[in-house]
Amino acid sequence: MSVLPLSPFGQPPLSKYDRLIARAKEVVPPARTVIAHPCDETSLRGPVEAAEAGIISPVLVGPAAKINAVAREHNLDISRYEVVDAPHSDAAAAKAVALIREGKGELLMKGSLHTDELMRAVTSSTTGLRTARRISHVFVMDVPTYAETLFITDAAINIFPDLDVKRDIVQNAIDLWVQVGLGTPRVAILSAVETVTSKIPSTIEAAALCKMADRGQITGGLLDGPLAFDNAIDPEAARIKGITSPVAGRAQILVVPDLEAGNMLAKNLSFLAKADAAGIVLGARVPIILTSRADSVRTRLASCAVAELYADARRRKATVSRV
Asked: Cβ contacts of residue 124 below 8 Å, gap of 6+?
């Protein structure tokens, strides 16, 4: 059995998630976070525990009587948090988005409603949170067997993205990586093979994305592709295939061809490699925290932490631009 090396103080080193959570706890003030319809134990406990950890400042939107009943049933103290009454899940999603539009929140978080319900309110052309950028999802993964924090995108929002959408997906992920303070990311554009062939359209799009980065249409990251999964994350696989690049074998952001591939990849890592998978949606006016009922407490805290760090970076950037 392998044993984690001890720190100089005799404690195991912090995991990738723990480091993100520790940094988010240092942000002052914590981001005001609007939670849409937190009406079961899981969706209410998540923001309460994140608030108790000092990561977010929650605003709970939904049927007030039901939220309070859930809190009492599960011994959750929500007396310090604002509760905004909304009669049902659709109304809660609409009200949560309206609060963001009014400048009363820096983050939006999904409660116990369906993701589709929340995203309908977010993507409304008249009352939503759209920007010029395409909305996309990033899994922020802590894979025990991989040295790097790993981003996988898009595995939850865009089903079969075309080249223009993929450009935004890539840029969203790079912006998150940079703003969270992780440096300049190494971005692998994945396909089934590492050579360009007309028989596999995703290889052509991968090559086009890399050329777009060369021409400044994608900025902030180092791109390579097409790369197969093995030679994107394993140096020996890249060496055997004769691939020499700063990305091959050392990727930090994995851009998948479509949602099906990304979802299967992320879930394979979660269930076979015991990886944790935090989730965040980008490209809207504010970051959106998407959590699953199956998420651990640590994963929920990590989702909030990543969003908090991103919101804080945006806050500081806006302050500098006003000066």
From this structure: 97, 130
Total number of domains in the chain: 2
User: Phi and psi dihedrals of 273, rounded to 5?
Assistant: -100, 5
12-24: buried (b, 16+ CB within 10 Å) or exposed (e) per residue? eeebbbbebbebb
* Residue % of the chain over a pLDDT of 70: 95
CATH number of the domain within which 252 lies: 3.40.718.10
Cα–Cα dist 72/38, whole Å: 14
Backbone angles phi, psi at 150, to 5 degrees: -120, 125
* Nearest residue to 233 via CA among 272, 271, 269, 205: 269
CA 286 to chain centre: 12
pLDDT in tens, 235-285: 999 999 999 999 999 999 999 999 999 999 999 999 999 999 999 999 999
Q: Do residues 55 and 43 both lie within one domain?
A: yes
Distance CA 21, CA 139 (A): 16
- Domain limit, last residue, from 109, 130, 151: 130
Going from the C-alpha of 215 to that of each of 186, 219, 220, the distances in angstroms are: 17, 9, 12
Residues 163 and 267 occupy one common structural domain:
yes
Question: What CATH code is carried by the domain that includes residue 126?
Answer: 3.40.50.10950
Count CA atoms within 13 Å of residue 88 on its CB side: 2
Based on the domain organization, do 151 and 100 belong to the same domain? no
pTM tops 0.70, yes or no: yes
The whole domain housing 216 covers 133-283
248 within some domain: yes
H or E, element range at 226: strand 222-227
